[in-house]
């Protein structure tokens, strides 16, 4: 996958034995960002500052990690690396790197004793380039999908890390998504859960007393000129794309969260960017778990 937005880099740290990892999204200088959480069980760091009412409007990097709340420690390594390069929000005592982090729950696969940490975050940062791999890498290494109906029915299937880009003239919108959903990702054109619920034939209602380990997290990056409030609108479109790909999305056992960042190079209407974000996220989810089709 070749990233098309100038200055955008993505790197991974992958622990293939413990089945966990980190994905670092390094943003171009001056990228404006906001975000939204729709899942009921998020694990995040610095997400509150993405509120359009908060002072800081620019961020330096986004970290996606496994390891649940433990994995948020990966952001520390990215902060240190950015500080060494002179990046960050200017303060009287020096620049403070702004790194937003989101984690998914993969402790129930591989080894729960090995989790992303500061060194893993730094390793992913140092690996960042314009041609990152996708699939079972980085934050998607231990990801699974299809857990909402429990082990006795379809059972969990592999998730992954997907990247997709949508273009409209000079406008570029890229989605980077780690897919660890409770819900299912159906093949395009496949008669799935929604159709069965609609016609009354669905017999796979889950036992809601069972706790599932989930969360889909990601970032949408665009070269559009957007302010912080408009970035929030784009993040909402990202969640719409997740809802188009995953059934059911945004459950109370998911921590679904998206950041939207704009690099400010191309004039574009925010609704066009939001629509492109919706499509890019749906495509990234399906490609990350291998259900994109032909």
Question: Care to describe what's here?
Answer:
The two termini are 17 Å apart. This protein has 294 residues and is α+β, with helices and mostly antiparallel strands. It has helices at 74-84, 118-126, 193-199, 228-245, 270-288, and strands at 9-15, 20-26, 32-37, 44-45, 61-65, 99-103, 144-145, 157-158, 160-168, 171-179, 184-185, 217-224, 246-247, 257-266. It has one domain: 4-Layer Sandwich (L-amino peptidase D-ALA esterase/amidase). The mean pLDDT is 92. The strands form 4 sheets. It has a 5-stranded mixed sheet with strand order 1-2-5-6-4. Strands 3-14-12-10-9 form a 5-stranded mixed sheet. It has a two-stranded antiparallel sheet with strand order 7-8.
What is this structure's SSE topology?
Layout lengths: L8 E7 L4 E7 L5 E6 L6 E2 L15 E5 L8 H11 L14 E5 L14 H9 L17 E2 L11 E2 L1 E9 L2 E9 L4 E2 L7 H7 L17 E8 L3 H18 E2 L9 E10 L3 H19 L6
Parallel strand pairs: 5-6, 12-14
Antiparallel strand pairs: 1-2, 2-5, 3-14, 4-6, 7-8, 9-10, 10-12, 11-13
Helix pairs in contact: 1-2, 4-5
């Amino acid at each position: 996958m070749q990233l098309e937005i100038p200055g955008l880099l993505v790197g991974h740290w992958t622990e293939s034995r413990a089945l966990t990892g980190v994905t670092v999204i390094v943003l171009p200088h001056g990228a404006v960002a906001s975000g939204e959480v729709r899942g009921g069980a998020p694990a995040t760091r610095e997400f509150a500052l993405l509120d359009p009412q908060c002072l800081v409007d620019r961020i330096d990097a986004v970290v996606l990690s496994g390891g649940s709340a433990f994995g948020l420690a990966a952001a520390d390594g990215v902060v240190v690396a950015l500080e060494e390069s002179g990046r960050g929000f200017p303060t009287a005592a020096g620049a403070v790197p702004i790194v937003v982090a989101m984690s998914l729950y993969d402790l129930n696969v591989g080894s729960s004793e090995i989790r992303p940490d500061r060194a893993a975050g730094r390793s992913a940062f140092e690996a960042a380039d314009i041609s990152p791999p996708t699939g079972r890498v980085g934050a998607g290494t231990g990801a699974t999908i299809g857990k909402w109906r429990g082990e006795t029915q379809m059972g969990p299937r592999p998730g992954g890390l997907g990247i997709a880009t949508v273009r409209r003239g000079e406008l570029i919108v890229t989605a980077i998504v780690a897919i660890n959903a409770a819900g299912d990702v159906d093949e395009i054109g496949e008669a799935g859960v929604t159709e069965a619920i609609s016609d009354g034939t669905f017999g796979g209602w889950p036992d809601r007393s069972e706790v599932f380990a989930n969360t889909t997290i990601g970032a949408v990056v665009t070269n559009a000129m957007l302010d912080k409030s408009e970035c929030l609108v784009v993040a909402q479109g990202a969640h719409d794309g997740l809802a188009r790909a995953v059934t059911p999305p945004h459950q109370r056992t998911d921590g679904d969260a998206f950041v939207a960042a704009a690099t400010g190079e191309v004039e574009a209407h925010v609704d066009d960017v939001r629509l492109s974000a919706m499509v890019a996220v749906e495509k990234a989810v399906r490609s990350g778990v291998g259900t994109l089709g032909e």
